[in-house]
Design brief:
By secondary structure, this protein is α/β, with parallel strands linked by helices. The chain has 21 helices and 17 strands. The chain has helices at 17-33, 35-40, 52-55, 63-69, 71-83, 99-108, 125-134, 152-164, 180-187, 209-217, 222-235, 245-258, 275-287, 325-336, 352-370, 380-397, 423-432, 450-467, 484-489, 516-532, 547-566, and strands at residues 3-4, 11-15, 88-92, 116-120, 140-145, 171-175, 192-195, 263-268, 295-297, 312-319, 341-346, 405-409, 412-415, 439-445, 470-475, 494-501, 538-543. Strands 1-2-11-10-8-9 form a six-stranded mixed beta sheet, sandwiched between helices. Strands 12-13-17-16-14-15 form a six-stranded mixed beta sheet, sandwiched between helices. It has a five-stranded parallel beta sheet with strand order 4-3-5-6-7, with helices on both faces. Strand 14 (439-445), helix 18 (450-467) and strand 15 form a beta-alpha-beta unit. Helix 13 packs parallel to helix 15 and helix 18 packs parallel to helix 21 (547-566). It is globular, with a radius of gyration of 23 Å.
Length: 567
């Protein structure tokens, strides 16, 4: 049995009576805590006793209005870029610097007369080389985007593309004031430097320069985008949860996670079907720490109600202008089966402005409910440090620490500490770990492609349907700046499959003493070590030869292993 909860305008929620009662009690707690007013007052005690990492991370509350007030400079810059004949823009960035621009690109496309955006957030040499081959370099503007200014991947990509286009007028920086990237831009004669707000963390920066500058270069109406965010911000100022949809949503997500429903599954409609790419980082990095957290599930094909355990919550981003009757019937079936379904409306791509803000507010509120600091990322640095140590060893010794494969042969080789004598056995052992209450994360250190997406989707559906485990997929190293925090700091319920592949290209990073193939290998090894140091189930599968053929073979192996597991 399910019931419809009393919710603010713009939010429609169905859940089982016991879940609804728990959420209502938590909403009463939010009223007693004066949660909305204290968030706007930037009261750090909502998230922790120490103000340093909290009070200076709440600038996102007012950034939309701040950006609207200063758009003249950006508009003049975009006009100048167009006059100078640029046709393409390559954004070099990771995580909070790249995910919002990618969602905006996929949702809006490029307006006539503006620049085609290519987001470059991979260190795999095949992908880096493909970008260089496909872009018209003489007409490409490179946006080097990093809040800290020192992100290893971004600096490596800059070094490579600067070696191909040694003209400062082709480069733009987006960074916080006082960073090493600001200095690099000045010395390198960059066309312009745009500044982020130091009081905003990367994953909360979608409505700051990090999202708005790429949007303007694509010809998106950023005034409308920011105006919708302003409307959402005003709505979120309501003190009572019944008048504040973002607050209600966040409190419910936090309370349901406390009750074991900690797999927040995004079901998104066009034109914002890619929204989960951005929301994934926001949720995972904000809540996944201290052994708790909410696991965001984005891009998992929708299954029947029987495909899911009792750890799911569904966030349905519904196109209210063009409803999908078949999809709505499937969401109704999930609700009738007792799974909480939270539906929010989107009319067009410009509504992303409001959704960026509303979800930031909701996730911050969920952090308060969970009793964690929603603005730090204590475990992200660990994998970076391990990767740095590995790459330094490579520079010193000329090779990586020796890793013996359990099996070699065919298109795949399994790397691990066990004694599996076949890929199927190793995968079968891993899949047995992925039962109800767990999540199965596939970490693909591969060049992104449609073929890879299709194979990884087959893999995750097979795992989900076999054991009702939630599944996630991330391309490395991008996910290290996103779900990587949750993997290491969140609930110890993850089961991890790492997939690596030999690069077909060798591309040196100027001045580094190593190439992109070594960098991505070091990042994969460092990530695997960080997981195994926590005794988490983690298997590495290496693809030899053709990556597409190897992924297809891997998907077949997983399908076979899950069939055996189900039987």
């Amino acid at each position: 049995m399910t019931q419809t909860a009393e919710t603010p305008p713009g939010l429609y929620v169905r859940m089982a009576p016991d879940d609804a009662a728990a959420v209502e009690a938590r909403l009463e707690w939010a009223r007693d805590q004066d949660l909305a007013r204290r968030m706007w007052a930037k009261d750090h005690t909502l998230w922790g006793p120490e103000p340093e990492e909290i009070s200076n991370r709440l600038g996102w509350l007012s950034i939309a209005g701040d950006m609207l007030a200063g758009l003249g400079e950006l508009e003049a810059f975009v006009e100048g870029v167009g006059r100078d004949g640029f046709t393409d823009v390559a954004l070099l960035g990771m995580g909070g610097s790249s995910l919002a621009p990618e969602v905006l690109r996929l949702s809006f496309g490029t307006a006539p007369g503006y620049l085609q955006l290519r987001v470059v957030d991979s260190t795999h040499p095949d992908e880096v080389g493909a970008v260089a081959d496909e872009l018209p370099l003489e007409r490409t503007l490179f946006v080097v985007s990093s809040k800290s200014g020192g992100t290893l991947e971004t600096r490596s990509l800059y070094a490579y593309f600067r070696s191909l286009v040694d003209e400062g007028s082709h480069f733009v920086a987006i960074t916080d004031p006082g960073t090493s990237l600001e200095d690099l831009a000045a010395k390198g004669g960059f066309r312009h430097t745009f500044y982020g707000d130091p009081a905003i963390g990367g994953r909360y920066s979608a409505l700051s320069a990090f999202g708005v500058v790429p949007a303007a270069l694509m010809g998106i109406d950023v005034r409308e985008l920011l105006g919708r965010a302003e409307l959402a911000a005003r709505a979120a100022q309501a003190a009572e949860p019944e008048d504040n949809a973002a607050l209600w949503l966040g409190v419910a997500i936090g309370e349901l996670a406390r009750r074991g429903r900690d797999k927040l599954t995004f079901v998104t409609s066009e034109p914002v079907s890619s929204f989960g790419l951005w929301a994934e980082q926001l949720v995972a990095e904000s809540t996944g720490k201290g052994g708790t957290g909410v696991v965001p599930v984005a891009g998992e094909p929708l299954g029947a109600p029987s495909s899911y355990g009792d750890d799911r919550v569904f966030a349905h981003i519904r196109n209210s202008a063009r409803p999908d009757e078949e999809l709505e019937a499937r969401m109704d079936a999930l609700a009738e089966a007792g799974h909480p379904v939270m539906t929010v409306a989107v009319r067009d791509a410009a509504d992303l402005g409001g959704h960026f803000f509303s979800w930031e507010f909701a996730v911050a509120a969920a952090g308060a409910v969970l009793g964690i600091n929603a603005f730090d990322q204590p475990n992200v640095q660990e994998a970076k440090d391990r990767a740095t140590e590995t790459i330094e060893a490579f520079k010193r010794d000329g090779s990586f620490p020796e890793t013996s494969p359990d099996v070699t042969g065919g298109p795949l080789a399994v790397y691990g500490d066990g004694s599996a004598d076949s890929v199927a056995q190793a995968l079968g052992d891993l899949i047995k770990e992925a039962g109800r209450g767990r999540y199965f994360a596939t970490m693909a250190y591969l060049p992104p492609s449609d073929e890879a997406d299709a194979a990884l989707t087959r893999l995750r559906v097979a795992v989900r349907d076999a054991g009702r485990a939630a599944t996630t997929v991330g391309y490395g190293p991008r996910f290290l700046h996103s779900t990587g925090q949750l993997h290491k700091g969140g609930p110890p319920s993850g089961v991890f499959l790492q997939v690596t592949a030999e690069g077909r290209r060798q591309i040196e990073i100027p001045g580094a003493g190593y190439g992109f193939e070594a960098l991505v290998a070091a990042q994969a090894l460092g990530d695997l070590e960080a997981l195994r140091s926590r005794s988490l189930p983690a298997l590495r599968v290496h693809i030899e030869g053709d990556t597409a053929a190897g992924l297809d073979a891997l998907a077949r192996e997983v399908e076979t292993a899950t069939e055996s597991h189900t039987a």
